[in-house]
Amino acid sequence: GSDCPALQAPADVLAGNETTCLAASPDGKLALSGSKDGRVFLWDLQSMQLRQVLSGHIDVVRAVAFGPQASIAFSAGEVGSLRIWDLARGSEARRSKAARRGRSWWSPAAS
User: Do residues 45 and 31 lie in contact, with contact meaning Cβ atoms separated by under 8 Å?
Assistant: First the structure.
């Protein structure tokens, strides 16, 4: 058995979902998960509950990240789409194409 509590969400929301990436907020209170079906999930780690489902990608979500204040989130799709999410509104704030090298995502800071 595990002493770690499980994240809770309605079964129909997670049906067919396969997690592809995960990120914690700077304060450790929230988490983002990306999925194979193109959705991004916002989790409350204190209550272990699903807060939001963000839809917009048409492909696999390969990377997720929080902004410095955790009110903004970023997600990157497999075909090069980048989404910026306003978490206070629960909606997409901006979208664009992201830079890629070959088949791997890269960050200029990490290059």
Answer: yes
